[in-house]
Each structure stands twice: as C-alpha cells, then as structure tokens.
Amino acid sequence: MMELKVFNIKGKETGRKVKLNTAVFGIKPNDHAIYLDVKSHLANRRQGTHKSKERSEIKGSTRKIKKQKGTGTARAGSIKNPIFRGGGRVFGPSPRDYSQKINKKVKRLARKSALSIKAKQKSIVVLEDFKLDKPQTKDFINILESLGLAEKKSLLVLAELNKNVYLSSRNLKNSKVIINSELNTYGISNANNLIISEAAIAGIESLLNR
Length: 210
Prior knowledge:
With about 210 residues, the chain is of the alpha/beta class. It folds into two domains: about 1-45 and about 100-210, Ribosomal protein L4/L1 (Ribosomal Protein L4, Chain: A), CATH 3.40.1370; about 50-95, no CATH class. It is about 35% helix and about 15% strand. It has a six-stranded mixed β-sheet with strand order 2-1-3-6-4-5, with helices on both faces. A hairpin with a 5-residue loop joins β1 and β2 (about 15-20). It starts with a strand and ends with a helix.
C-alpha cells in the first residue's frame, strides 16, 4: 500500500493519510496500452465533417469549352475540370468517422498505468472534500496557489459533480475539473499534477480494480 498525506484547501496538512491501492496506483506501466488509449481518445474527438466539392458537385456548364484538336493545348471537356480555377477538387476530403475502439481491459490497464506513473513521479495531491458557496474563479485560484499548483497544468478529480467548483475553474486554461467516472488516460497524462479529492480515491479504485 502507498500512503499520501491529505491536504485542506489552505494547503495545510490535515494529519490524515490515504492508502492507495497498489493494484491501481502501483503497477508496472504499460506504455503501449497508454498509446492505444490516447490515440483512440484523440481520434474519437475528431468531428470528421470536412468536405470539399468534387467535379460532379460543382455548379457549371458541361459544354465542351474548346475544340478537341488544333489548339496546341491539352484537351478540355468541361469548365468543371479540376485543373481550372473554380473547378472541382481531385480526391478532396469527405465526411468520415474517425472513431477507434479498444478493449475495455486495455483501456483499464492504460488508466492504471497512467495513474501509476503519476504516483511514481509524486504528482498526485490528495485534497480533503470541500465545497464552494458560489462560483468564484478567484477562490479556485487561491486553492491552487495554496497547493503550489497555480502555474502548472492540473486536473481535479471529484467524487461527485459540484457545480460551483466546476464553474469556478471553467475560465482557467491550465485547470480542469471532472468526476472520477470521467477520468481518462489522456487527461491523466496531459496534466502535470493530479488533485484527487479524498472521497474520489475509493471511486477510482472501485472503477479500475476489477
């Protein structure tokens, strides 16, 4: 078992410690599983709505614009020819689905590997459960500053949705708030530090230790 100190929103130690399950936070990282999961995540985010008009979709006359022979130039049968300005595009992009699927076990292994890397790097901070009375970005920044993470890219993982905390962090470029069920390999790897609420630890271990 690994143990981490629990901090409050003032950045002070509470005197409590949380034990992390080594089956989730202490495994030997599988780099290939991380690669597959991150690639799948980024591919699934692509809209795939790109489109350009090909020759058959261009509006214009199909009249032969010049005679076949005797001009000294190449043959041309339509103003919609791709070599002319305003013509169709050759092999242009068309809507497609970029999504990629990976096995649940591989995805689970990837998340455990990413968490284990963060634990080994000592980049996980356990924060006692807290609530904000109202959405206030300044209050959220104060929490990050008290933990020494104001200038770093951070990911805060909560046990359950807290609207005020989420709204308070929404305007910050380097900070993101999610609940434990939304935790993914890309988010873990992309953050410099993970801030996990005390109650979210059990939820993460329950989801991944199967």
